[in-house]
Write a structure and sequence with these properties.
alpha+beta; D-Amino Acid Oxidase, Chain A, domain 2; about 25% strand; disordered N terminus
Length: about 400
């Protein structure tokens, strides 16, 4: 990669145009974290996104749950997520210090519960796998579950306590990351960008619609030249990298002041259906989330919201009395093996940072550290090396074209 800090120009650039060392496409938690880390390393960075509230970060519940999210055959993903979780408290504190904004990080643990005997048996099988991998998981009786969370339904018959699975508020984290990035010198363009490939390498970003209210005034379609482009557009990168949109619908409720119905994240099995409830310190309660393979569909559906609230009430009957504040659907970026794509793309000058699927918030810090290291000629840790996009071949790119994320 080209070392940052050297001024450069491009054919056809207008007077006053800005050439970046790095352009980051995508202003969610991954892109914002990458932009911040790169600026801290001395790169001149431009962050391009038409609306950072429109992506999956807006809908994420913020569970930092490498143990609770474990699925069979995902040991590489587990190792990556455990590394991220081990450093997340420090990462959140750094974001808060750099931005002056809180992140809502809570080291409160996660309680997994079962509603009936079949659910309890399934939870026990999951716990056996977790414990066989050396993970810290404590079996609880139904009574112990209700002692930990008194508002649980009396039918809850067993559970697991995962003390190391925590939570953060993704909306507050994103606000902190964007503020920290701006304070570090990152410039923002609020437009939809497209990767420009010229002479076989990524040459920058095209802004078809210009910039409406970002730091860089662009009043017509223009190219923003750069030495490196970081593609962090989540599921929208599907046209050129092997990620797919996985729809998730969530509901946000409001608990009465001083009357929180839950103190920690509860992940439940309700007659073999999964649901989670994530309480915030400010009284918000997030209920989610569906997993739907429907292409890029972000419509909220009555049936999905009904099912989420029905199962949440089965576990915590008091949910029925809470204010319904918001329902939302977003698409998470899933890869064929559920590992992210973090590393060099199929052409020089392109770095991929997508495919985080269920763990985008948790992995934002380690992804940003890896991207900054790669751009500046460093190495990545072994857990990130397993995420090399080369395992799926190269993105489709001709000698000269525009890649539309």
């Amino acid at each position: 990669m080209v070392p940052p800090g050297k001024p450069s120009t491009a054919p056809g650039a207008r007077r006053g145009d800005v050439r970046a060392d790095v352009v980051v496409l995508g202003g969610g938690v991954t892109g914002a974290a990458c932009a911040w880390r790169l600026a801290q390393r001395g790169s001149r960075v431009v962050l391009v996104d038409p609306d950072e509230t429109a992506g999956a970060s807006r809908a994420a519940a913020g569970m930092l749950a490498p143990v609770s999210e474990l699925h069979h055959g995902e040991e590489d993903l587990l190792a990556l997520c455990l590394r991220a979780a081990g450093g997340f408290a420090g990462y959140a504190a750094e974001v808060a210090a750099a931005s002056g904004l809180g992140t809502g990080y809570r080291a409160s643990g996660t309680l997994a519960v079962a509603l009936d005997a079949g659910d309890r048996a399934r939870l026990a099988r999951v716990r056996e796998v977790q414990q066989a991998l050396g993970l810290e998981v404590e079996a609880l009786t139904g009574r112990q579950c209700r002692r930990a969370e008194p508002f649980l339904d009396p039918a809850v018959c067993g559970g697991s306590l995962v003390r190391g699975d925590h939570q953060v508020d993704p909306r507050r984290l994103l606000a902190g990351l964007l503020t920290a990035a701006e304070r570090a010198g990152v410039r923002r363009v609020r437009a939809r960008g497209e990767v420009v490939v010229r002479d076989g390498r990524a040459a920058g970003v095209r802004l078809p619609d210009g910039s409406r209210d970002g730091d860089l005034p662009v009043d017509r379609p223009a190219d923003l030249p750069a030495d490196v482009v970081v593609l962090a557009t989540g599921a929208r990168a599907q046209r050129h990298v092997p990620v797919r949109p996985v729809k998730g619908q969530v509901a946000r409720l409001r608990m009465p002041a001083g009357e929180h119905v839950l103190q920690r994240t509860v992940r439940g099995l309700v007659r073999d259906r999964e649901v989670y409830l994530v309480p915030r310190e400010d009284g918000e309660l997030v209920v989610g989330a569906t997993t739907e393979e429907r292409g890029f569909d972000e419509r909220v559906t009555a049936g999905a919201v009904h099912d989420l609230l029905r199962d949440a009430q089965a576990l915590v009957p008091a949910v029925a009395e809470l204010e319904l504040v918001e329902v939302l659907a977003r698409c998470r970026p899933g890869s064929p093996d559920n590992l992210p794509l973090i590393g060099f793309g199929g052409v020089p000058g392109l770095v991929l940072a997508t495919g985080q699927y269920r763990n985008g918030v948790l992995l934002s810090g380690v992804t940003a550290d890896a991207v900054a290291a790669l751009v500046h000629g460093g190495d990545v840790v072994p857990e990130v090396a397993a995420c090399d996009p080369g395992r799926f071949g190269s993105p489709r790119a001709a000698r000269e074209e525009v890649l539309v994320p």
